[in-house]
Amino acid sequence: MGQGSNSVPHMLFSFRRAVVAGFCALLGTQSAHAQTAAEFKSDSVNIRKIYDEALLRGQSYENLRYLCTRIGARLSGSPQADQAVQWGKQTMEKLGFDRVYLQEVMVPHWVRGAKEKASVKSKKVGKAPTMNICALGGSVATGGKLKAGVVEVRSWDELAKLSDAQVKGKFVFFNRPFDDRHIEPGAAYSGAVDQRGRGAIEAAKRGAVGALVRSMTSSRDDLPHTGTMRYDEKVTKVPSAALSTNSADWLSQALKTDPNLEFELEMACQTLPDVKSYNVVGEVKGSKRPEEIITVGGHLDSWDLAQGAHDDGTGCVQSIEALRLLLASGLRPERTVRAVLFMNEENGNRGGMKYAELAKAAGEKHLAAIESDGGGFTPRGFGVEAPLPVVQNVQKWAPLLAPYHSDKIGPGHGGTDIGPLKDQAVALIGYDGDSQRYFDLHHTAADNFDQVHRRELELGGASMASLIYLLSKYGL
What we know:
Blueprint: H1 7-27, H2 37-57, H3 60-71, H4 79-94, E1 99-111, E2 117-121, E3 133-135, E4 145-148, E5 150-153, H5 156-161, H6 164-167, E6 171-174, H7 185-190, H8 194-205, E7 210-214, E8 240-243, H9 245-257, E9 262-266, E10 270-284, E11 289-299, H10 309-328, E12 335-342, H11 350-361, E13 365-371, E14 379-385, H12 388-395, H13 398-401, E15 408-411, E16 425-433, H14 438-441, H15 454-474
Parallel strand pairs: 5-6, 6-7, 7-8, 11-12, 11-13, 13-16, 14-15
Antiparallel strand pairs: 1-10, 2-9, 3-8, 4-9, 10-12, 14-16
Helix pairs in contact: 2-10, 2-15, 3-10, 10-15
Subcellular location: Endoplasmic reticulum; Golgi apparatus; Lysosome; Secreted
Main location: endoplasmic reticulum
Keywords: Carboxypeptidase, Endoplasmic reticulum, Glycoprotein, Golgi apparatus, Hydrolase, Lysosome, Metal-binding, Metalloprotease, Protease, Secreted, Signal, Zinc, Zymogen
C-alpha cells in the first residue's frame, strides 16, 4: 500500500505524539529512577540518535553476512567455530572497544558424519516417500543399517501404558505436535521439546532400539530440525533422530495402515573428546560506575545444518552493534558494558557457565545481563527475569521505547547463556522479537543469511542499545 506526499510529516507528528504520550505516562508513575521532564526529553533525543545511527549506518547486517557466508555453520569443536572466535575478536578490536579478550572453555565435540538415511518397508502401504531425517545432536550412531518396527506415542503416559513386548526391539516414535493454540510459538516449543531431550532415555528404558522424534515446529514441510538430546549413563544409549513434520505425518498415517511396517535408519555420528574453545568478550568501561557491569550477548556456536543466521548469528552481531551504537552516538555508558559471544549454547552451555564462574571468582557486580537468542526479527520488547519490583522498574522505561515498538516489557525468560548469572545479576533480560517465523527455521538447513531482513536486524540492535543506555544511566 503506497503513501501520499504527506506521509513524512504524518510520521513525524505520530512520533512526537508518541513521545508526549510516553512522557505523560511516565509522569503518572512514581518512577524509581526519578526522571525529570528534562531528563525524559534528553533520553528521548539520545535514543533517537541511537536509532538514526542504526538505520542509516548500522553494521549488524554486513557483519552477519561475513559470519554466515564466509564462515558458516559453527558447531562447537569445529574449525568454523574457531574461525568465528577469531572473527569476533578482530571485529570488536577494529571497533576500538576498551578491552577485547578471550575466555578459555572446554566444549563438546560431536560430529554428524555422513548424511543420514532412512526408509520405510511395507507391503500394505506401498512405495514410501523419502524420509527426511537428521540425527539429534549428541546421538550415537546406528552402527550400520538399523531395521526395526515402530510404535507411536504422543505423551509419556502413552509410552507408560504400553507393555514391554509392544516396545522392546522397536523404534519409539514420539509424535507430539506443537500446541498451536499458544500465541507465542516459544510456549508451544516448551510444551513439545521434552520428547526430543529425553526421548532416547525413556525409549531405551523400555527396551527400544532407537527414538524417532517429530521436529520442533508447527510448520508442515520437509525440513528436519536437529537439536540437543540427552543420555543417562545408567541407561543404554540408543540412536535418536528427528523426522520432518511431513515425514512424521506420513509415518503416523502409514502405521494406521500397517502397524507392522519396518523402519530402516543409518547414522554415522560420533562424540569426540572435548576441545578447547573460547568466549569472546568486548568491553567498554563505564565513565562513572565502572565496577557495575551490564552484559549483552548471544551465542557464537550454531548447529551444523546451515549458517546459523537467526540462531544465533543475529544475537552476536546485535550485541557487538549495541556497544558500537552507544559510542557512535556519543553516549559513553556510565556503567561498564560487555558484549559477550558465548560458545557452546546449543549442546552444553559451557560458555555461559564459564563466564558466570569467572565473574563470581573475580567478585564482579553484574547489574544486568541481556541476551538476544530468538532470531533477528522485528523488535517487540524485553522479557525480564527478576523480582517483580525490578521488572516494574524496567517497565517504566516503556514510554521511551514506545515510538520504536519495543515497549512490550514484562516478566520473562532471560536466556540460556546468561542463565548461570541468575544469582549474580539484579536482572536477566531477554530481547524479544516477533517470533512467529522463528521455529520455521530453528535448527534447520534453512537458517541462512538470506532469511534475515536488514531493517529488522538493525532495529533490534538499536532496541538493545537503548535499554543498555537507560540501565547504564539509571541502574535498577
